[in-house]
Specification:
The chain has 649 residues and is of the alpha+beta class. Helix content is 19%, strand content 36%. The termini are far apart.
């Protein structure tokens, strides 16, 4: 019996009409619909769906008939990409203990390829004993004749010597570029690393390498080459932190793109592969992502931070998108996926009492059809409103943050949860549905997510202002926002807690130790507590002091100018004895970005100082809260902790 879209809709999306759930149970669930992606010519679309209690890959045709579906188990899905109308690829990752080979526990990425026509599937490099079972980058796809290929970075292995059979990892080897047949899984060397360094490649739709870049992490040299990297470089620069890289093909054949974030302004540069001549594109916009033709791979436009959220070089395509935007007045509307003529697209809306809705849109006519909701159990009446709140930092810098208010009740003098984002340099929060923030508004709190200096989305000068301010003005920017909200009458500053993950977790701990008198409680999720020991861990993990990671942390903390003693001076663990609010530490045991020892150290320091502290160790969880059970566990403990120490009523 052939499964229809309606059957899946009943099982997954059209969902739950009652909401008798605890906030943690409903908001902590993984999305019931995600990674929606249209095929290059628009004849099919794929997505990951929660059907019952099972996550499945589903592929549908243009008439919304299922042509393929398969269980994904507990794999961590990171994205879906199409190589052709018959070939789809699923990006996954897994936390693996690589101590014997690489000397670390690491998040290992791979790609599952699926031939829809022949119902065949396999993992990239799975059948090649001479290449490590991991993908270190996806660099393009090509359809040559009737064959579809993917181009992936992999680590070649050397044949073992002596009595041991098989292959060994060679520490002197770097990643190479391999072409993988998406019908058979067979791989072929396409481009070899010309020198040891971090490589990027751009592969055109005909399968040729259009450009290569190499970053030498020890001395910070970046080189740009045409083709496979064997020719004389077009450019060479000294860049301590690699804020530059290849971004795809340009607007016309023979050009490619470099995103350069090293200057006073971010630059999208279109480079002529023959002459090296460059043209600046979209200078007046803050670019969040690029829009390419999925068949020719040429640049069509960009996703931007400002309205209308996307812009196209072709006036007709630009008018088409603006027309679609008018179909969803008042909603936060994002272009998710599109076909090569932009005749059809997948659009996502949220806000305005919408926890998120995916739409299939006929771009030419403006007609729309609901595909489903990521969170069908979250009713419109439970979705809080979000808006940008602008204020000035104590030194006069203009800053803004996202303010989310409860769906019910007066929007004044509210208890508040301050929720700084991670990063800290580069990421930022924007208006829209945020499952973590909305869990607190559902409980009756206002939530404030400040885009402190260093955040992305505001240009290079604002972003670069964060360097050296890890434990300084980044923190005061957060507390200045709380004061501004209180002055505006929106929140009660005496009823504030701070909650965050990663750098946000550091900021939460610092908010009750480095800073004082601000918060009634602090919740740190996967946060750093001791910058000095964390930096030593980075040195060990990266194989020494001379690399881009150590240069980044020295620059971000201010150690590059003031010496590494500053890392001790800005560490919450240093001031555990003066913590002025209860602390909850939550950490994933499998965190490969911030080791769980960071939370353990803070717990020990607080306990020794006889300060109130709780610690939750989440088994099987990584840095990104990828698991549903552990996401719910995190929210359950965090909500209960905040409610205990800062009751919403």
């Amino acid at each position: 019996m052939r499964t229809t879209f309606a059957a899946i809709c009943v099982a997954v999306f059209c969902g739950l009409t009652q909401a008798a759930f605890a906030s943690a149970d409903i908001y902590g669930k993984l999305p019931g619909l995600e990674s929606v992606d249209l095929s290059p010519k628009g004849t099919r679309y794929a997505f990951v769906a929660l059907v019952g209690d099972q996550r499945r890959l589903v592929v549908m045709d243009a008439q919304d008939k299922i042509i393929f579906h398969n269980a994904l188990g507990d794999k961590k899905i990171r994205g879906i990409r199409w190589a052709s109308e018959d070939h789809v690829m699923i990006e996954i990752s897994d936390t693996q203990n690589m101590m014997a080979t690489f000397g670390v526990t690491a998040e290992i990425w791979n790609v599952l390829w699926i031939n829809l026509k022949e119902k065949k599937a396999g993992f990239v490099f799975d059948d090649d004993p001479g290449i490590a079972d991991a993908v270190f980058g996806m660099h393009g796809t090509a359809v040559v004749g009737d064959k579809a290929y993917g181009y992936f970075a992999g680590i070649p292995l050397r044949r073992a010597t002596g009595t041991r059979a098989g292959y060994d990892w060679d520490p002197s080897m770097d990643v190479d570029l391999f072409r993988v047949d998406l019908d058979t899984g067979k791989s072929r060397l396409e481009a070899r690393s010309v020198e040891q360094g971090s490589h990027e490649w751009i592969v055109g739709p005909d399968g040729t390498v259009a450009a290569t870049s190499i970053y030498f992490t020890k001395d910070g040299t970046w080189r740009l080459h045409p083709g496979e990297g064997k020719n004389k470089p077009l450019r060479e620069s000294k860049i301590p932190i690699p804020e530059i890289g290849l971004s795809g093909l340009g607007r016309t054949p023979g050009t490619f793109l470099v995103m350069d974030n090293t200057g006073e302004v971010d630059e999208l540069q279109e480079v002529n592969a023959t002459t090296g001549e460059q043209t600046l594109l979209l200078e007046e916009y803050n670019i969040e992502g690029l829009i390419f033709d999925p068949v020719t791979r040429l640049l069509l436009g960009a996703q931007i931070a400002e309205e209308p959220r996307a812009i196209f070089f072709d006036p007709a395509l630009d008018a088409r998108w603006r027309g679609v935007k008018k179909t969803f007045p008042g909603f936060n509307t994002r272009l998710i996926s599109w076909d090569h003529t932009l005749a059809h697209a997948i659009v996502k809306t949220d806000g305005q009492r919408d926890s998120g809705t995916y739409w299939k849109v006929d771009m030419a006519t403006g007609t729309t059809k609901v595909l489903g909701k990521p969170y069908p159990a979250i009713l419109p009446t439970r979705v809080g409103t979000t808006q940008m709140f602008k204020y000035k930092a104590s030194d006069g810098l203009d800053i803004e943050g996202v303010l989310t208010l409860p769906a019910k009740g007066a929007a004044k003098n509210l208890p508040v949860v301050v929720m700084p984002h991670g990063g800290p340099i580069g990421p930022f929060d924007s208006v829209g549905f945020d499952w973590w923030a909305q869990a607190y508004t559902d409980a009756g709190y206002a939530v404030f997510q400040p885009n402190y200096r260093g955040s992305g989305g505001y240009g290079a000068t604002f972003r670069d202002a964060g360097y050296g301010e890890w434990g300084g003005k980044m923190l005061s920017d957060i507390s200045d926002g709380l004061k501004a909200l209180a002055d505006a009458g929106a929140v009660d500053p005496k009823r504030a807690c701070i909650v965050g993950g990663s750098y946000g977790g550091y900021a939460a701990l610092a908010g009750v130790t480095v800073q004082q008198g601000l918060y009634k409680c602090a919740v740190s999720v996967n946060g750093v507590s001791d910058m000095r020991s964390f930096f030593r861990w980075i040195i060990d993990r990266r194989g020494g002091r001379q690399n881009s990671s150590t240069r980044f942390y020295r620059a971000a903390t201010g150690a590059a100018e003031r010496g590494e003693k500053i890392m001790t001076e800005i560490s919450p663990v240093t001031y555990a004895g003066r913590a002025d609010a209860p602390v909850l530490l939550i950490h994933g045991v499998d965190d490969t970005v911030v080791p769980i020892a960071q939370s353990g150290m803070m717990a020990s320091a607080l306990e020794s100082a006889d300060k109130p502290v709780e610690i939750i160790r989440m088994k099987g969880e990584d840095h990104w809260l990828s698991g549903e059970a552990t996401r719910i566990e995190m929210l359950t403990h965090a909500l209960a902790f905040v409610k205990k120490h800062n009751p919403p009523n």
